[in-house]
Each structure stands twice: as structure tokens, then as C-alpha cells.
Amino acid sequence: MGKNVWEEFFDGHAPEYMNNVFTKNTKAEVDFLIEELNLAKGSSILDIGCGTGRHSIELAGRGYQVTGIDLSSGMLAEAKKSAATAGVKVEWVKADAARFASQKTFDAAICLCEGAFGLLNTEDDPLDHELSILKSINRAIKPEAKVIFTVLNGLAFARKYSQEDVEKGKFDPITMTGTHLMELETGGGKKELRVRERGFVPTELVLMFRQAGFEVENVWGGTAGKWGRRPVDLDEMEIMIVAHKNTDVD
Ligand SMILES: C[S@@+](CC[C@H](N)C(=O)[O-])C[C@H]1O[C@@H](n2cnc3c(N)ncnc32)[C@H](O)[C@@H]1O
Q1: How far is the CA of 53 from the centre of ligand 1 (A)?
Q2: CA of 210 to the centre of ligand 1 (A)
Q3: Cα(35)–Cα(27) distance, integer angstroms
Q4: Which terminus of the chain is less hemmed in, N or C, by CB atoms within 10 Å?
Q5: How far is it, in rounded angstroms, from Cα 132 to Cα 220?
Q6: Helix or strand run (H / E) with residue 34
Q7: Is the minimum distance from the CB of 5 to ligand 1 under 6 angstroms?
Q8: At 187, phi and psi to the nearest 5?
Q9: Whose Cα sits closest to atom 4 in ligand 1?
Q10: With contact defined as beta carbons under 8 Å apart, do 245 and 136 qualify?
């Protein structure tokens, strides 16, 4: 089986990833996470789709035990370098968020900036993929443990895509999936990858989380640089979900 298309993209993009403007708010985001998770120092946090480890490393530096999992070896290599520079210890695991199993159970989990959630491989079913991620995370955390996600805003997708996009197959309103080309710089020149990204509307998020054994506490605006305890803006890029693991569901 070939590489997951997102793995291929992020392996190539890894050295430049931290130049993206949306990565520039890590300290403020970690302040927010710590306040919202409200965990004792030393608690364990699972970072799903951790990428270059920007949240994992900052959280480890503030006294938490962090495990970061990601599909991309390139992103994990950048994470390892940054952790060494910062002088912090994080456990890095290369795994697919839709399929991983953990020996440990964690006090909390984060899945930020589309860390796997909504990033579909060519053959992935847009409904099953996200449920598999949620169920894997649910199994890996303790009862009542909190989770914080930021995911692509389907309300904005619905306003951004046109009827023509639907007719041309660029946007599927049934699965809220957009298909587009991403350019990747390879050693031998540029390569175009056809990728699918899934947006989510708040109502389905609440139901989907419930189906996977969580109860959603809040749905807030979650666009990078604009996190806040505020209603979702219809046109913004990302939604934040704060939820906890239900104890009466296994
Ligand atoms: C946009 S980056 C977000 C990284 C990080 N959470 C952040 O906030 O900067 C998305 C990450 O998800 C990872 N990813 C994509 N699909 C994945 C999957 N199925 N399992 C694990 N990681 C995945 C990518 O490799 C990439 O590192």
C-alpha cells in the first residue's frame, strides 16, 4: 500500500511547516489549553496529529507528560529536533490516528489545527474516518478526561463553495468534503497532490462525539489566532470542540 496522501504532503512540507502564519500563536493557545483542561502538573496529555510538536513541546515545558502521535515521519523529525532544542522530553509515536491503540490511558487529549481529523486519504470514507479517530482517542483516555479539538468549519465550506463546485465534483455537500490540488516541492521539482478535506457543522460534531462516547461541553470559534469562548463565526476557518469522555458509554 502506498503512502497516505497527507503523509506524503506533510513529509515534504515539514521543513517549512513552522513558517505558516497559523503556527504563530502556540504560546497563547497553550495558555488557553491549560486553563481549559485544568489539570495538575505532571498529568498526561495525548496530542493527536501533533505535527512538528509545537503544542506538545510547549506543554512539556510547562510540566505535563506529553505523547505526540503523527503519521508523518518528516513532521516527527522536526518535532524531535525542536524538543531537543527546547530541552524537553516528549514521547513521539508514528501512527495513524484512525487506527492507533495505546497501552497508556491519558488524562486529556488534544487534536488541533486538523491534526488528522478531516484529512482524508484517497480511499477513506468521510464518515467512518472521523468516527474511527474519535473512538481511538476515546479508548486512549481516562473516564471524564477532557478533549479539545479544532476542526474545519463546514458552515464556512457551505458558504464558500458554489453550485458549480458541486457540479464539478470539487465539493460534496453530502459528506461536506472539498477536493483540491496541493502543490508540493520535491527534490526533483514540483508535484501536485489531489487531497480531500472534510468540514464539520456543529450539530453533527455534537452527535458524532456522542456516538463515539463523548459529551460535548462547548462549541466555540477555533480559528488559529482567534481562539476564544465565543460563538462560531459562520465564515471562520475552524471550530473548537471541548468535550469529555462519558463514563456510561464504553
Ligand atoms: C495541519 S497539521 C497540524 C499539526 C499540529 N497539530 C499543529 O497544530 O500545528 C496536520 C497534521 O496531522 C497529521 N496527520 C494527517 N493525517 C493523519 C492521520 N491519519 N494520523 C495521524 N496524523 C495525521 C499530519 O501529518 C500533520 O502533521
Answers
A1: 10
A2: 23
A3: 12
A4: N
A5: 23
A6: helix 26-37
A7: no
A8: -50, -40
A9: 51
A10: no
